[in-house]
Amino acid sequence: MANLLSLCLALAVVTALLVSFHVGKLTISQEIFFPQIGKFPSLATSSSPLTCSCNSSSSSSSSSSSSLDEWLHPKEVWHSMTDEELMWRASMVPRVEEYPHNWTTRVAFMFLTRGRLPLGPIWEWFFKGHEGFYSIYVHASPEFKEEAVESSVFFKRRIPSKVSFSLSLLSEASFLEELLQLALVTLWSIDYITFLGSFDDPRPMGRGRYNKRMWPLVALSDWRKGSQWFAIDRKIAIEIISDLKYYPVFRDHCRPPCYMDEHYPPTLVTKLLPELNSNRTVTWVDWSRGGSHPASFRWWDITEGFFNRMRFGSNCTYNGNVSSICFLFAR
Ligand SMILES: *[C@@H]1O[C@H](CO)[C@@H](O)[C@H](O)[C@H]1NC(C)=O
Ligand SMILES: *[C@@H]1O[C@H](CO)[C@@H](O)[C@H](O)[C@H]1NC(C)=O
Ligand SMILES: *[C@@H]1O[C@H](CO)[C@@H](O)[C@H](O)[C@H]1NC(C)=O
Ligand SMILES: *[C@@H]1O[C@H](CO)[C@@H](O)[C@H](O)[C@H]1NC(C)=O
Ligand SMILES: *[C@@H]1O[C@H](CO)[C@@H](O)[C@H](O)[C@H]1NC(C)=O
């Protein structure tokens, strides 16, 4: 228990420090629209198919008084749409790029968690002082019903989940997964850079998971592997939620030891918009010890040298320029 606690703390500190170091880099030029669920504009009243199964308290009564801002930034994100309805709804994007008001750019964070968010206090700290620049969505197991306290940034940010993570989204079951947080950062950057790990792994845990039945829609040469943490811009986010062509192939043929979350996003982006992906993730992990989980760290690992190795230990390109700032988070 003590070890687990120190591991949590260590990870928490690592995350926090990296974040504080890099947070200034999160500059984005446009507001994002994904995912905006909740209230619909007054155009969409009861006769519209949009509201057919969305009669939660937030969307039914006050639609006539809802302003554009309320619609764009719903206080409460719970809804009663089915996955199909939600995807369809979220795939709608404005054609007019210029918003009729001054607005600030936001980053959407999607957390995938079984229950209470691990390292919650650190995330509270991370968001503190940045109100108005982020949107938070928490996708927890359906069994988890607990609401965050009202002062929390996670208050009423839970969105309905139809699946139990143990089998579907999170691939490897171990206690480390309890610490796992999946952050989907939706950026709208000028040149559409997306940070989604994507590589062709010749080993059994890479190409070995390809299923010939996926052919011809997905060929072995399209097959990619990546990590569960990624940052995508709006353009790619829209492509992913609008995909009805490749998703069924994965749903039907990517079964353990093939894991959707490791293969579907990188393979899809490689098929659709390869040139927009940086092919790397923003989360630093140490795979040097081998195995199917990255290395975990204890308190005695946490030294200045360790931090510097994470922060400056690699070079990468960002918008064509070489940078030593390659990661936003560390696990
Ligand atoms: C809509 O609300 C009605 C009455 O509150 C309820 O009976 C019905 O099940 C709701 N529909 C959906 C799809 O949630
Ligand atoms: C938007 O911002 C610009 C520049 O700061 C300012 O000139 C303009 O009046 C603002 N418009 C509104 C509607 O607030
Ligand atoms: C990422 O990989 C794709 C092909 O898989 C390639 O088209 C693209 O240029 C790569 N991105 C970078 C930044 O190298
Ligand atoms: C990164 O690039 C800088 C400048 O080119 C170089 O001094 C440094 O050694 C490089 N670091 C790594 C880890 O390759
Ligand atoms: C890349 O470097 C060029 C030349 O130094 C600079 O003008 C440009 O702003 C840099 N781009 C970014 C994204 O830092």
UniProtKB/TrEMBL annotation:
Mode of membrane association: Single-pass type II membrane protein
Signal peptide: 1-16
Keywords recorded for this protein, A-Z: Glycoprotein, Glycosyltransferase, Membrane, Signal, Transferase
Gene Ontology CC annotation, any one: membrane
GO molecular function ontology, one term from the record: glycosyltransferase activity
InterPro entries in UniProt: BC10-like (IPR044174), Glyco_trans_14 (IPR003406)
Pfam families noted in UniProt: Branch (PF02485)
Subcellular location: Membrane
Domain of life: Eukaryota
Name used for this protein in its record: Glycosyl transferase
Biological source species: Cinnamomum micranthum f. kanehirae
